[in-house]
Design goal:
The chain is an alpha/beta fold. The chain has one domain: SGNH hydrolase (Rossmann fold, 3-Layer(aba) Sandwich), CATH 3.40.50. It is built from 5 helices and 4 strands. A 4-stranded parallel beta sheet has the order 3-2-1-4, covered by helices on one side. α2 links the parallel β1 and β2. α2 runs parallel beside α3. The chain starts with a helix and ends with a strand. The relative contact order is 0.20.
Amino acid sequence: MLERLPKLLKSLAPQNVDVVLILGGTNDMTSLEAEQIVSNLVALHEMAHGAGATTGVLSVPEARVGANLDVDPSPQKREKVNQALRDFALRHSQKCFFVDVAAAFPQTAATSELWDGDGLHFSEKGYMALGDLLAKAQLPKHRIPKIACSV
């Protein structure tokens, strides 16, 4: 994402992108320390801010792994990352807004239809529910988006 976002922002520059939604870090939970995940995600937000966009800071949802997809490999690390993202959004409230995807979509029996069989990605219904959640997000009052993109 760190390599793709600058190219995407540059290609969209003529369209004056107002909002960039950033949902990342899930795949990094098993290979990187929390501080590096946060650093990478903050760098993405700063790139988008540098292009004049407001960013949606989306918390990292649960991931499930293992033979029965019953193990969340890094719940403490995920919460540490999410708290840092929450804090970042609060400190930069003129440039970003926080959406707690993790709280809205836990991986439980009641929400299983929102998750793909791989335990990492949303199902089609899950992405629709995510879209509904994002539509209700509170953007900074001074921003009215023209175009939204997701990386």
